[in-house]
Write a structure and sequence with these properties.
The chain has helices at residues 21-31, 45-57, 61-95, 98-110, 115-122, 126-134. By secondary structure, it is an all-alpha fold. The protein folds into two domains: 13-57, no CATH class; 68-134. It starts with 20 loop residues before the first helix and ends with a helix. The relative contact order is 0.07.
């Protein structure tokens, strides 16, 4: 195994001169604080993720708490969607009727799910969901 030591102060390549992934990574480490966004030539997902981590690491305590709250809310929402879909499928399979799906869809609408989300989870038609929304 070979260790490589890098002195960022001696890394003087410009964005255009960075051809390898190592050069691009070193450029980001040295210049991330001056860059407003990911350079176009650094379009790989790993570099975008690195910039996202750098952006989050510069949050104030209040911004970090807001970000974590938003991420928790998003995670809760995605889990609720997965649960509703699973529940809706189970109801539909056990009863063999659309009635169970309509009940699940009505509950979802009452909890604030959009019509599009209900359609995606229950596979009911737009007309069926809109009719439930009017009841």
């Amino acid at each position: 195994m070979r260790l490589i030591y890098v002195r960022l102060t001696r890394f003087n390549k410009t964005e255009e001169e960075c051809k390898s992934n190592l050069d691009k990574m070193l450029f980001i480490f040295k210049n991330a604080h001056n860059l407003g966004k990911v350079p176009k030539s650094f379009n790989k997902m790993v570099f975008k993720r690195l910039f996202e981590v750098a952006r989050i690491s510069n949050f104030t305590n209040e911004e970090l708490m807001d970000y974590e709250s938003d991420m928790k809310r998003f995670s809760d929402h995605m889990n609720a969607l997965a649960y509703a879909k699973e529940k809706g499928e189970a109801i539909g399979e056990s009863r063999g009727e659309v009635r169970g799906l309509k009940k699940a869809a009505r509950n979802m609408l009452a909890k604030g799910y959009s019509v599009a989300e209900v359609i995606g989870i229950t596979n009911l038609s737009r007309e069926q969901v809109r009719a439930l929304n009017k009841i």
